[in-house]
Recover the amino acids of this structure.
């Protein structure tokens, strides 16, 4: 779960590496602050954003032009942005608990809280504007029209002044989602009437797709309103990138991707052609399109083999299940529609990446692959220890000799104890395992007859493993810890090198 999200986020984040910092303009609206003038500048501002940075830091350089732009845009709202160079202002940065760069903090008359927005100019502006308002703004005939268009997503509740129950629900939603959306409430019947709306109502105004969507559920409570705004704030088909990936992952819904070449003249028509399908599946699947050229690694991680765009895939992020559909030739919409129909009906099998099943197992450690996973792990007669590794992982390489010795030691007990390893970059851990790995190596144990996995977190020494197996295994097999007599030993078979990239 977390593995899949973080891995994808990391994959997408690599894009940030390619974003070069634009040259910043010489005249700047960002205040430069130091120890001598920090307090006097911050203490009296009702709302201010401060960046603690280091000139050498790459993410700071990428942020700089965005920060400048946001600062200029926020002048109109009298919200100041400031920065502190922590290489010059060690003490000041330490005082504010700065541990990494850049650190962004919001200050309200001198007291600070974390900034939770993104690092794009638009995102900073939108976030700070929301911070400047109460979580729920009371709207009047004068402020109503302007408020509706103030942000990408604005929610307005129309309530009778006496309707305390609905107001409580709306207030609760606004309090918990104030960082994400703007919330207003109209109590003035005349304003509601002019808008053509009868209270109680909850309307989401958007700068994409249909500009106005009204909550039409029966129950008007915190949960139903929260679900409504979360669903309606996602465009039918947006472009997926490192900035918005997390919001899709957090929605908990499977993600349907159209991988496309952004240079293709068909891009727009392909994206538009899927809107009807996206709409029909709202609340079940989120649809996005993604730059297949830039994110080709991400396509690979969804088991899309080639790099011929467009291609399509559905990913169940929660369970890390992948459903690739590569051949879209001829009838893109027809093929995708059919595929999605099968997916939502539960008729599709997830794609599980696997190395071929090894012809023989003559190495000290059993080489486990995805295609053989269920058969090997399903063998109830044995205690099973499995290392999930990545070929590039240093700790895995360091562990290898010990793990080989362990495998060698248990060869005499191979009807009772299996010592196995799986290259988790070349094999998907099948959904039947019930877990995904988040780091390498991950070592898991399943006692004979049990379906439960225990994570090995002990000392990765021969003794550590042997004690663990003797303690947790059904068969309680222990082996001696003497070094293996090399002269008796056949040289362990060398593993074939894997060249898979993560
Ligand atoms: C605050 O002090 C720093 C030097 O520590 C100076 O560079 C900066 O211009 C000053 N900023 C303001 C707003 O006075
Ligand atoms: C290893 O095995 C060989 C042959 O069985 C024996 O001669 C030798 O003494 C053994 N060495 C050790 C260190 O046990």
């Amino acid at each position: 779960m977390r593995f899949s999200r973080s891995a994808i986020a990391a994959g997408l984040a690599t894009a940030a590496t390619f974003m070069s910092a634009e040259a910043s303009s010489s005249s700047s609206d960002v205040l430069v602050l130091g120890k001598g003038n920090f307090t006097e500048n911050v203490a009296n501002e009702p709302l201010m954003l401060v960046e603690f940075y280091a000139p050498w830091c790459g993410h700071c350089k990428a942020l700089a032009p965005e920060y400048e732009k946001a600062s200029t845009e926020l002048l109109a709202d009298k919200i100041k942005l400031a920065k502190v160079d922590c290489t010059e202002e060690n003490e000041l940065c330490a005082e504010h608990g700065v541990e990494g760069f850049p650190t962004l903090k919001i200050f309200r008359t001198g007291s600070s809280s974390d900034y939770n927005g993104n690092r794009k100019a638009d995102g900073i502006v939108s976030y700070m504007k929301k911070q400047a308002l109460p979580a729920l703004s009371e709207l009047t005939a004068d402020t109503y029209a302007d408020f509706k268009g103030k942000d990408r997503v604005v929610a307005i509740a129309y309530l009778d002044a006496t309707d305390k129950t609905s107001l409580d629900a709306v207030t609760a939603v606004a309090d918990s989602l104030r960082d994400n959306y703007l919330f207003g409430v109209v109590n003035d019947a005349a304003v509601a009437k002019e808008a053509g709306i009868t209270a109680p109502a909850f309307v989401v105004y958007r700068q994409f797709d249909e500009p106005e969507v009204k909550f039409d559920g029966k129950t008007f409570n915190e949960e139903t309103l929260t679900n409504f705004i979360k669903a309606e704030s996602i465009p039918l088909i947006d472009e997926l990138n490192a900035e918005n990936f997390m919001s899709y992952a957090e929605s908990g819904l499977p993600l349907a991707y159209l991988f496309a070449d952004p240079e293709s003249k068909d891009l727009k028509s392909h994206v538009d052609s899927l809107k009807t399908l996206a709409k029909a599946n709202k609340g079940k699947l989120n649809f996005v399109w993604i730059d297949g050229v830039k994110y080709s690694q991400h396509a690979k991680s969804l088991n899309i083999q080639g790099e011929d765009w467009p291609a399509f895939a559905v990913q169940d992020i929660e369970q890390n299940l992948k459903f690739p559909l590569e051949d879209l030739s001829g009838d893109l919409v027809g093929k995708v529609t059919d595929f999605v129909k099968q997916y939502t009906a539960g008729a599709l099998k997830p794609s599980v990446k696997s190395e071929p099943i090894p012809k023989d197992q003559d190495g000290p450690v059993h080489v486990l692959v995805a295609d053989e996973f269920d058969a090997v792990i399903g063998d109830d007669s044995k205690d099973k220890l499995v290392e999930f590794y990545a070929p590039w992982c240093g700790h895995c390489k360091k562990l290898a000799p010990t793990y080989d010795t362990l495998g060698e030691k248990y060869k005499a007990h191979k009807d009772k104890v299996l010592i196995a390893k799986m290259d988790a970059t070349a094999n998907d851990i099948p959904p039947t395992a019930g877990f995904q790995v988040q780091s390498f190596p991950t070592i898991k144990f399943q006692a004979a007859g049990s379906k439960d996995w225990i994570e090995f977190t002990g000392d990765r020494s021969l003794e550590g493993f042997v004690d663990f197996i003797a303690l947790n295994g059904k068969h309680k097999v222990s082996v001696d810890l003497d070094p293996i007599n090399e002269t008796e030993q056949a040289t362990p078979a060398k593993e074939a090198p894997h060249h898979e990239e993560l």
In short: Residues 31-34, 36-37, 41 surround 2-acetamido-2-deoxy-beta-D-glucopyranose (ligand 1) (CB under 6 Å). The longest helix spans residues 2-18.
